[in-house]
């Protein structure tokens, strides 16, 4: 098992290097000069411009810039933004809010998606199954910003069950509605994926064998059907964690959440390439670690991986 974990961890290194190299190349190959965003329309004097280019390593060739960037990542020195603030400080201020929002959305889509998908799969072709299929299809079809504004208007303005926007404290109750909006589309995918897996495994030979042995229906469902159905669902949830963190831009904009998404959006608008690269690098790390966790879950869900 230890060797399996080590191999999976080592596989993440080239993935991280390749993703960050591509990210760095795409961001810093954009037309224009980063110093123009600092100096404004009037421009800077040649001396100030040369100093800025040296400060942000823009006077170095691309490969040297990338190596210095990797060194900063490994030493937790992400540099400063154009206003002179430490980027690591900026991320530390906004990251907890987005992490809380993404985890709440992940729990919502995982718990409710699996439960509804399980019952729909066990009742294939019945009213409950048909209803959740139609509802999930509607959720997938409607854009997330439409769902966000609609739920904000209904639950935040008309019914006044919660605040329409999130305050600086970002309490659990305030983040509950944005988390549901953020995880709503993924909830529909988890539901349909769980339903399909449950239907497939419910007709497998090992399920009929377990039933013939006299095992109780709850044990057959939980141990044999549900557990084996979780392998594709776990894959989706692991990949979705990084997508939720990055996809929070729209949700955080609708509910005025001071998180990573809003910070990343402002950095793109202001042309602050160091901030953009640093935030996306953190998201890449989260994505890699989430996939490592999924690989470990495989070994628990499927005993054949442990024995292999």
Please give a structural write-up.
This protein is mostly helical and 308 residues long. The chain is 79% helix and 0% strand. It has 14 helices and no strands. Helix 5 (87-122) crosses helix 8 (172-202), helix 8 (172-202) crosses helix 10 (217-246) and helix 9 packs antiparallel against helix 10. The protein is globular. It starts with a helix and ends with a helix.
Features:
single chain; 308 residues; mainly alpha; 14 helices
Instruction: Report mean pLDDT, rounded to a whole number.
Output: 80
Order of helices and strands: HHHHHHHHHHHHHH
Which parts are unreliable, with pLDDT below 50 for 5 consecutive residues or more?
none
Q: Total strand count, please?
A: 0
Shape: globular
By helix and strand content, what is the structural category? Answer: mainly alpha
Report on the biggest sheet. Answer: none
Taking the alpha carbons of the first and last residues, their distance comes to: 9 Å
Strand fraction band? under 5%
In helices, the fraction of residues equals over 70%
Number of helices: 14
**Rg calculated over all Cα atoms:** 24 Å
Layout: helices, strands, pairs:
Blueprint: H1 2-28, H2 34-39, H3 46-55, H4 62-74, H5 87-122, H6 127-141, H7 144-158, H8 172-202, H9 205-212, H10 217-246, H11 248-255, H12 260-270, H13 273-301, H14 303-307
Helix pairs in contact: 1-13, 5-6, 5-8, 5-10, 6-8, 7-8, 7-11, 8-10, 8-11, 9-10, 10-13, 11-12, 12-13
